Amino acid sequence: MDILEVTTEKLFIQNDDPVLEILMSRLPVSLHGLDLSLGSSNEMPQTYCANLAHTLSATSHEWFSDHLSLTAEDGVEVGHLMPMQLSNEDLERTVAKIRAVQAFSDRPFLVENITCYYPIPGSSIPEADFLRMLCEATGCGLLLDVNNLYINASNHHFDPMTYLEQLPLDRIIEVHLAGGSRKFRMMVDTHATDVWREVWELFDQVCRHIRPAAVIIERDSNFGLFSDMLAELDIARGILARHGLRKPLALTVAAA
């Protein structure tokens, strides 16, 4: 492994995890949040902000990130990364939230694209345009999840490369790869299978246009042989090398 991606909220609580502590002391760290809930209409909870600020201050990290999503509304936890409404009002509110969390760290903040299985009522801005405008307004970076892009393109019948062309490519700092499942006549993001061949092919195309500093292969459950997961690292490294990209800061098989 060349880098460790750690779930930010895991560090909010005091825990005795000697293995994690050793890894964090030896490897560069990417902090990846789940509960920032940029899409909520409410203000960010003060307790969450305090925990985030403390964690960012106390933890050496290359950058920190979260999703373009909604995980709570009016104090109710959704329990999942839900797609958010994308309108001018939402853009203004999201810009304000990003600027607020950027003040907690001098390291870059990245926003990740998520899967969206149905149209969101009230949305008036295409997701790629919304992400581009966030970057322009805040200077934030992007975490491009290639699996999420492939799933959305397949389910909603659009060209993923056309989507990519709408993004500020120089702002893509990290890339996620993962596997999924086919359920309910659609493709679903699960992080429970090997990376699909089609996702590798899309990653290969994407690498013609970007120079990511980090590539993370996500695997959260249904683990097979460790040697099989290491083989996926070799595939990713081979694709990067084919496009003349230097060894990235990050290649790992699972988030903590």
TrEMBL record:
Bilayer-spanning residue ranges: none
Residue ranges the record marks as coiled coil: none
Pfam families: MbnB_TglH_ChrH
Name of the featured protein: DUF692 domain-containing protein
Superkingdom classification of source: Bacteria
PANTHER family membership: UPF0276 PROTEIN HI_1600
